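Issue: copy button drops trailing tokens. Both records pasted manually instead:
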Amino acid sequence: MNKPTSPAALRVIESDICIVGNGAIAKTAALGLAQAGLSVTLLGPTASPPTPASASADHGWDARVYALNHTACHLLSSLKVWDALDHARVAPVDAMIVHGDGPHAGGLAFDAYGAHANTLTWILEDRNLNQALDAALRFAQNVKVASGRAIGLLRDADSATVQLDDGGSIKAALVVGADGAQSWVRGQCDIGLDYRSYNQCAVVSNFACELPHHGAAHQWFTGAEGIVALLPLPGNQVSLVWSAPEKLADTLRAESAQQIADRLAVFAREKLGALTPLQPELVRDFPLRLIRPHAMVAPRVALIGDAAHVVHPLAGHGMNLGFGDVVQLIKTLSEREPQRAIGDERVLARYARARKEDVLLMQVTTDGLARLFETDIEPLRMVRNFGLNLLDKLPVLKRRLISHAMGK
């Protein structure tokens, strides 16, 4: 069983790869790279003990949920993590319905049948995913879990060393930054970035719905009130992600979950009936921004997940981009020439090139949609509603779009 290692006791931990981060992307990368035959040190806090499925069922629903596509599902399945999830708390999405705004609102609908798939995506909670990953890490070969705070990164032609605040260090051929939007690793590499706030906050909470959702995710582009998404949870329950302008977000932050449910009635009542808060006290919010680092790699360093890119959540693919990074990094390192080290500059450049198109497409798409739907100018509103209706009548293009979003 893998137990957290004290860097201070060993002074220096050596491995092929050091991953800095403690989220789902970091843990998945550790499992995947270890499965590929590389020794990995995961620098993060000690994993919490496993929670039995019966105990997990007693928990309320996480405010933070993810919509995972087929790329994520295949990756987690290959690591024996998908089957370890509590599937009673996973909701398959069979349809996605996008609603325009205004008196002549357009609309766009995707469904699994039209995409020639059993399901479009899966909604699951942060806790469910991380519990399954933590359980896999405890028994993973070639993975050490280290606790400590990184304070320095030294790199030379042959290796990189992460210095820790207790005097210990981790030496590796490659350091992977999976430490989020405010990445410490990225900062140590002096990688510049483009940053823009959307002047919005994502307000999240969970509700029971009066009518069955039939596995459909709904999204309303409202213009002045932002973007409202209601994602299916198991049973007659939904998870809210409301990308609200900051002034409205301040108001929502001060309101109860029931008051928010009352506000949602104008959008949801026809499709889902009345909404009732599952956990009245559980309303969370986080700022929305676009972060585009100028590079995904540096000497002896590769970035993945939010450390490499942060996009608007309107498409629900921020986490999926991170899983795509993991898949590509494993593939690139596994297919390198025998004479090339895993931290070789040319190897890392291949990883960056392979991810460039997918990341750029998602950045441009989500940023463009966020800009397009944030204005209430009537001519523009008419154009975007017309565009939604037109796209809905073009099945070939719809299938291409949904196939890309599904990661197939």
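Record 2 (pasted manually too):
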Amino acid sequence: MTDLFTPLQLGAISAPNRILMAPLTRCRAGAGHVPTALMAEYYAQRASAGLLIAEATMAMAGNSAFWHEPGIHSAEQVAGWKLTTDAVHAAGGRIFLQIWHGGRACHPLLNDGAQPVAPSALAITGDEVHTPQGKQPYVLPRELRDDELPAIVAGFRKAAENAKAAGFDGVEVHGANGYLLDEFLRDGANQRGGPYGGSVENRARLLFEVVEAVSAVWGSDRVGLRISPVNSYNSMIDSDPVGLATFLAGRLNDFKLAYLHAMRGDFFGLQKGDVMTPIRAHYRGVLVANMGYSPAEAAAAVAAGKVDAVAFGTSFLANPDLPARIRAGAALNAPDPKKFYSPGPEGYTDYPTLAAA
């Protein structure tokens, strides 16, 4: 496992290891989507990661898709997140905030009756969303007009400014998993015409505008981007996911990001395609891989130069000291999916460390 413990430069960030914590929605924010002291404890417990990437966080008001997810668009939220960044830094860690717009995954019951927005008027099917009135079907979104998109970009820029005020070390733009920026990227969700639809260049336009705006706030060496070209979560599909991944990998070299964070597969196994090989071939920056890696596979992938680091999700959720466990070859705690999104500390901050086991 020695390759996982080689230091790595992520833009301006010096990571002591290549075991990153993937962004994981946990729905523990308080009223007004304000981060809590419990969240600070959770992240500080996991500060031994090479980099912590905090959960998907609402860049702007009125775009809730998870009911109890945090935001970064109010002064109270900034103050709430400061508890987390202070705790992580006190524990010796580094933390980026993932900034996000839920797009068509939002629901009127979570947003004062507002209809969700998307690149095209196409609803998520085959799933339901948690709301104060129980699980509900997704609703038909409203197609965004071209003249509304500058406000989306400005919202991400303001979120980046607020993340800096909250004490984060950088931000990750959420361009994955069927939320707004990913909806524009993939032709299964983006069927509009004009400058933001049609060709892959046009579909990627909004993402690049957001990355550029966020980089103007932070410097691109403190900005990451997450993509998921083959993941079908939230009714997503693309006619050429390998071509999309290849295009993005090449164009993203222009931005000189801290890293590109790529999900290699599909949660549901519906779409196939090797996207990691062309991304590695065309992207010259730091490549972080995610999705179903065991420690042994992660170490082998880093050793072979296939990726530069691996972001672990549920294994980090259940093992606050995951790097220590990997180094020791110790058994891992099993995560409890029933408590992924439940309130309170149970299944959140009560997983034992190796020392306490």
